[in-house]
């Protein structure tokens, strides 16, 4: 787990276990397996699409996302990414926030990158290439899969928020 901004950490599944044991964190589980499945208690391939928590489940100090590292950005719901970015913004002043996925390389750092775009002036926003390069200074392990990379390519300008 790496602190990339005061109170904002990016990590992997093992880091989530540590934070859950410590108990004083706000955790964003940016992975369907095993966290979304456990939170909703479903078996089989997926929870039914008409389930009220199909995309996002809120549990105490946790946001649990039905987010899979797919190659096609069409399967990355903007609603999920927006909710995660806002959850960071809402919690970061009160406690440590961990955004994690299974390996800590794609989904979770992408959510952190989007948070930086919307709520800070810490990245070079001249172009998408500059954004990624300046984010990799903070989080060198950033290696987005096709779906989240395509999502950022499609929506990065939408996240240039109040701070810019």
TrEMBL record:
Listed transmembrane segments: none
Q: Where is the Tyrosine specific protein phosphatases domain?
A: 78-136
| Record's signal peptide | none
> Could you identify this protein by its name?
Dual specificity protein phosphatase-like protein
């Amino acid at each position: 787990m790496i602190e990339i901004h005061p109170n904002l950490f990016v990590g992997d599944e093992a880091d989530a276990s540590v934070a859950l044991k410590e108990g004083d964190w706000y955790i964003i589980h940016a992975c369907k397996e095993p966290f979304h499945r456990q939170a909703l208690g479903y078996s089989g391939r997926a929870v039914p699409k008409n389930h009220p928590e199909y995309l996002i489940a809120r549990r105490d100090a946790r946001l649990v996302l039905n987010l899979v590292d797919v190659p096609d950005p069409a399967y990355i719901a903007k609603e999920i990414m927006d909710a995660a970015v806002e959850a960071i913004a809402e919690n970061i002043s009160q406690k440590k926030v961990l955004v994690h996925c299974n390996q800590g390389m794609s989904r979770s750092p992408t959510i952190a990158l989007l948070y930086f775009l919307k709520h800070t002036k810490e990245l070079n926003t001249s172009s998408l290439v500059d954004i990624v390069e300046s984010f990799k200074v903070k989080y060198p392990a950033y290696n987005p899969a096709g779906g989240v990379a395509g999502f950022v390519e499609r929506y990065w300008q939408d996240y240039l928020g109040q701070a810019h």
